[in-house]
Amino acid sequence: MLGAIAGDIIGSIYEARPIKTTVFPLFDRLCHPTDDTVLTVALADSILTGKDYVDNLKVYFHHYPHAGYGGTFIRWALSLSRRPYNSWGNGSAMRVSPVGFAYGSLDEVREQARKSAEVTHNHAEGMKGAEATAAAIFLARTGASKPDIKKFVEDTFGYELGEPLDELRDRYAFDVSCQGTVPPALIAFLASEDFEDAVRKAISLGGDSDTLACITGGIAQAFYGGVPPHIRKEILPRLDDRLLRVVRAFCKQYGCG
Q1: What is the pLDDT of residue 171?
Q2: May I ask the CATH architecture of the domain 2-254?
Q3: Domain boundaries, the chain
C-alpha cells in the first residue's frame, strides 16, 4: 500500500491544477497526504486489528477531518448511520490497496475488496472498481505479466484497457466515478516502465490526479517489487505518527514496503 500512498502524495498538488505531461518535479514542498492516504491507512488498520470497517473509517475521518473527502462521505462520516450510500465513486478503489497485499488467494482478495467497498460504495460500479484494483494488485505481486493482468481485468470486469495512453490523455477530463478512474489508472500502469514512470503517467492524465496515481501506485508497487528508496524517503516523513505506525506495522506484517 506504500505505493498507493506515494501516488496520492505526489499527485496531491495537481488535482486542482491538472497537467498533461510526465515532466514535472516529483515532489513539491506542498505535496501532502489526502483522504486517499487516510482511508487507505484506515483499511490497513482494520485488516491488522480486526476493527470494523465502518467504525474505523469514521474514526479516521474524525482524526483527519480536513483531508479532502467528498461531500457525501463527509455527511455519512458525521452521521450516526452505519448504512452505505450506494456510491459509484472512486473512493472504494483508492483505499483498497491493503486488501490486495494482505490476502493469500485471488478469490479471498476479491471477496474482501467487495466487503471493504460495500460499507459505503454498495453500488455495483463502486464494488467493481475496488475488486478490480485489488485483484490487479494481487496478480501483480504474485508474478502475473502485464498482458495477463490486462486480460483478467478486461474479461472479468468488462473494463476496456486497450486505448493508447497518449490518446486517452488527449481526451481525459476530471472524473470521480470508479468506471471513469480505474481503467485509466490501469492503462497508466500497463504503459509504464517502472514505479516512478507509472505514477508520472497516471498524473499526466489530468483529472483526479491524486486518486489516479494512488490506484496506479498500488498496482505498480506490487508489480515492480516495491517503492524506490528515493520516493520512500520523501513520503514517510510526510506521514504523522499515527499514520506511520500503521503503515510500518502493515508493511512488516505483509512485506509490502
Answers
A1: 94
A2: Orthogonal Bundle (1.10)
A3: 2-254
